[in-house]
Design a protein that fits this description.
Keywords: Cytoplasm, RNA-binding, Transcription, Transcription antitermination, Transcription regulation, Transcription termination. Monomer. Binds directly to the core enzyme of the DNA-dependent RNA polymerase and to nascent RNA. It is found in: Cytoplasm. Belongs to the NusA family. The chain is elongated, with a radius of gyration of 36 Å. It is built from 17 helices and 15 strands. It folds into four domains: 129 residues, N Utilization Substance Protein A, Chain:P, domain 4 (2-Layer Sandwich); 64 residues, Beta Barrel (OB fold (Dihydrolipoamide Acetyltransferase, E2P)); 139 residues, K homology (KH) domain (GMP Synthetase, Chain A, domain 3); 62 residues. α7 packs antiparallel against α10 and α11 runs antiparallel to α13. The protein has 410 residues and is an alpha+beta fold. The strands form four sheets. The chain has a five-stranded antiparallel sheet with strand order 7-6-5-8-9. Strands 1, 2, 3 and 4 form a four-stranded mixed sheet that branches. Strands 10-11-12 form a three-stranded mixed sheet, sandwiched between helices.
Length: 410
């Protein structure tokens, strides 16, 4: 096989891998030099001439003519009699350039050369993919579901690049079928060996922030700033926004008339409940807004320990805590403060944990999950509501109510 024919046989890589011909030639030269080093021990005295336009390649070995019997390095020296077989008028001390044909490298070397070339092209391809997706980290990307595994969904983009979305990066309510188009953010890109591993996430707060940029023109244009986003994926999120332009209502612009603007985002996130609140540097006001929809009576802040005691009317406590404690947890994450809820008139009440000798801890925990952590807060609800909200058995709820009532009847 001639050099030219070898290059032409690799044209498939140029088409399939979208690699330009100049890059292909550079890789080809590198591969040839490695082959020459293996066969001759060094490639320093070889010239490799590549013509990308013609797709041609020539290899020339340069050696010095020495007297017969004085050749010490056959790679760099040639005897006078051998040199004169090439050109009769060669003399000692002159340089001889001789073209090396592929056949001179041997069949095994040619096969190894081809294998090495394939490897180098794949490596080049993977490096380009890594660079491409590294620049996309934190951006929204769309890909198609290719394969669904127990712990991850494997996606392919339009160019056939593999993207992995692990189970913990999915929204719990997500349900995918093969062929579905999925949106998420490129969360991380790493090179493992020579292969890039691309991770997509739909559970990241950044995904919600980027959806705001994509769906709300004022956010995209920079008229509204998204200051912070916190999420419990698929359940609830809080987004703090503000604007330098006093004429713009940031919350109103993000939500839209009757929720028209935010509706598409909510639907994308599996009906995740999104609270949009006005950001402020006034910490008391910010914590009050973060606990929405609860109405706060007063706040006592401990800046040193990053704690806030919030006083609420009894009927507001469950709103502040929220289903499963989601509201108060997100309010704490949004403000950076540990929030303790106190009820007005709590001095006449008794905390549930005081009944731990009569009520099992796991039952108390079930009530605390829905924001009921004192005796009176439980007794404010009728039995049917408590059974529905806690998923506890009727007998268990009845037993708890009887114990609590006895406390206040004594």
């Amino acid at each position: 096989m001639e050099n030219l024919a070898l290059i032409d046989s690799f044209s498939e890589f140029k088409d399939d891998k979208l690699i330009d011909r100049v890059t292909l030639m550079a890789i080809l030269e590198d591969v040839f030099r490695n082959a020459l080093k293996k066969k001759y021990g060094s490639d320093d005295n070889f010239d490799i001439i590549i013509n990308p336009d013609k797709g041609d390649l020539e290899i020339w070995r340069n050696r010095v003519v020495v007297a017969d019997g004085e050749v010490e390095d056959e790679n760099e020296e040639i005897s006078l009699s051998e040199a004169q077989k090439i050109e009769p008028d060669f003399e000692i001390g002159e340089d001889v350039s001789e073209e090396v044909k592929l056949i001179d490298l041997g069949r095994r070397s040619i096969l190894a050369l081809r294998q090495n070339l394939i490897s180098k092209i794949h490596e080049h391809d993977n490096t380009n993919i890594y660079k491409q997706f590294k620049e996309l980290e934190g951006d929204i990307y769309t890909a198609e579901v290719h394969h669904i595994r127990h712990r991850a969904v494997i996606l392919l983009d339009d160019e056939g690049n593999e993207i992995i979305m692990p189970k913990d990066r999915q929204i719990p309510s997500d349900f995918f079928r093969k062929g579905d188009n999925v949106r998420g953010i490129i969360e991380s890109v790493e090179l493992k060996g020579n292969k890039p591993t691309i991770i997509m996430s739909r559970a990241s707060p950044i995904f919600l922030e980027k959806l705001f940029e994509q769906e709300i023109p004022e956010v995209f244009d920079g008229l509204i700033n998204v200051q912070k986003v916190v999420r419990i994926p698929g359940e609830k999120a809080k987004v703090a926004v503000d604007s330098y332009d006093d004429r713009i209502d940031p919350v109103g612009a993000c939500v839209g008339m009757k929720g028209s603007r935010i509706h598409g985002i909510v639907r994308e996130l599996g009906n995740e409940n999104i609270d949009v609140i006005n950001y402020t540097n006034n910490l008391n006001l910010f914590i009050t807004r973060a606990l929405s929809p609860a109405k706060v009576t007063s706040i006592k802040i401990d800046e040193e320990n990053k704690r806030a005691e919030v006083l609420l009317k009894p009927e507001e406590v469950s709103k502040a805590i929220g289903r499963g404690g989601h509201n108060i947890r997100l309010a704490g994450q949004l403000t950076g403060y540990e929030i303790d809820v106190l009820r007005e008139g709590a001095e006449e009440d008794v905390e549930l944990r005081e009944f731990s000798d009569e009520i099992e801890d796991w039952i108390i925990a079930e009530f605390q999950k829905i924001g009921l952590d004192t005796a009176k807060s439980v007794l404010e609800y009728d039995m049917a509501d408590l059974i529905k909200r806690t998923d506890l058995e009727e007998e268990t709820v009845k037993h708890v109510i009887n114990i609590l009532k006895e406390e206040f009847e004594e």
